[in-house]
Amino acid sequence: MAIMQNETASRHTSRALPTPLLLWLSCSTLASLLFTTTYLIEGATRPGYSTLQQSISALSLGPGGWVQQVNFIIFGLLILWTAFAWRKVLTGGRGATSYPIFRVLEGLGILMDGFFSQDPTQGYPQGAVLTPPTLHGTLHVVFAFMAITSIACGFFVLAWRFLKEPHWRGWAAYSLITGILTIVFITLFGMANGQHSEIAGLYERLSTGLGTLWGILFLARLWLGTGFGAYQHPTNPNQ
């Protein structure tokens, strides 16, 4: 039995990702942290804006709205750029094609939200008159839905991939739960926002924050030297 276990263990090795690739991959989480920090600061300092109630996208409205628009654009571009890094890391296994595609869709959705602002909402900007949905407001919702759906689907793809990774199997459940909770919280946000709930914005921030936390923990493990994807593969123990 001991011999069989040793042979099984020897068939898999874990080697750290090359530093340039790891830095490239890290840009997505750094972008997420920059995006989060920016909207938190903006939300805390913007007159009349309620972080608990209003959506993140509402920061694109009113005086200083350009800051959040640029925040969306930079975040989207960095997500698009790192999609190619994910393709390189995942080469030769599950999700090598589908996950980068979801990252591209996510990046495009976020990028487009920077160009198409949402319509004014109840209570923000102050004194704004609510109007029927506009074209740019509708496009904003469509692209936001595309982005958050792609994020959730990406977690499901990674959960499927982690099942085949000897050093990452526990992350399959974590990724699956993160994807499910992302959908749950964004659904609660949509329902609460429609009812002008005072905590609607909290649900959206929980939904987006899950991905940021996942990215931080994932990168921490990579930086500590655990291999993944194309850098964790079967080897011949006789070589």
From TrEMBL:
Coiled coil: none annotated. The chain crosses the membrane at residues 21-41, 66-86, 98-117, 137-159, 171-192, 212-231. It comes from the Bacteria. Keywords: Membrane, Transmembrane, Transmembrane helix. InterPro entries: DUF998. The keyword Disulfide bond does not apply. This is DUF998 domain-containing protein. It comes from Dictyobacter kobayashii.
